Amino acid sequence: MAQFSRPLLALILGQISLHSCMAGVRMAAPLQALKQGQAEWTVGLLMALFAAAPVLLSLPAGRLADRRGYHVPMRLGVALSLAGGTIAALSSHYIAMCLAAILTGAGSNFGLITIQRTAGRMATDATERIRVFSWLGLAPALSNVVGPVTAGLLIDQMGFRFAFAVLMLMPLAALVSARYVPAEADVPRASTAAARQSSWDLLRSPALRRLLLVNWLLSASWDVHSFVVPILGHERGMSAGAIGLVLGLFAMSVVGVRLLIPILAHRLSESQVLTGAMLWVAVIFGVYPFVHSAWLMACCASLLGLALGAVQPMVMSTLHHITPHERHGEAIAFRSMALNGSSTLMPLLFGAFGAALGAASLFWMMGLAVGAGSWQARQIR
Q: Which of 13, 191, 238, 331 gets the most CB atoms within 10 Å of its CB?
């Protein structure tokens, strides 16, 4: 197995520090708005702003990473996150929370694109890329624990302002860890003919279009599971603890499979794993609505977590393989735009279809879509 290097650890710590800040603010800001008596639709708008900024700023972030390497865009990401946390700590006004959402969302996304681009360049072949992105895939899972748990504990003990102040300091750890990431020389202007091309030219590649479609279907599967499980659990009279157990086992399966992939990477093919994961997801979604006990739902969630957890390393490895070396940042940006846009809009569609057809039908519709999309995964080369 490829060595777990110091630069890779620095990338993981950098992503944890930026994402933890954003995740903590994303939990605390809506909670503060609700305590102030804000309407539910304004809280929904506040939540949407965390993903709206990445949709708009992903391409500039990707171009900057392609042009300037790791350190410049990472510093910008830290600055944006620090500014967002500072605003949240200084003012509890709703507009201030909206600005904090925009800035921390943008800062986290700048860091994510830069980190993923740099991680892909650390690998020398497909097997090593899979390993690198499996390790890196642990960062979001850890961040979604560190940020919200820290924020929640500090809010209970010291109040919102103190919690935001601590969250504000988290991105600074990314500057410390960045010292262990080797500097990358700026791309000479004479060699950047791609700079004159539109970023949208990348979508002329059939392989990239297929990969983005596959990634979107699997990301939407993740979103629909998070959306439907609490509804199904409530309909079946489960306690909040039981519903939490189902979602918790799903998260643990995601982490577990990403720890396992580096050991098995030499035996894995990206296309085969993506195709198999999509068929696996389709089958589980077909069965899920017929399961009524908490433990059986937890088993389904665990199996689903294994499939969806294996996807990101394969997608990122494939993306670096099928796109030009000098345009990896832009390709990652397209992926980020698609996923953030989906996370913003899909819950609205889930709510509309769920209200009209029932929550269980969302699993069946998503299963059919993912199963049909597995054909596209087979075609990616």
A: 331
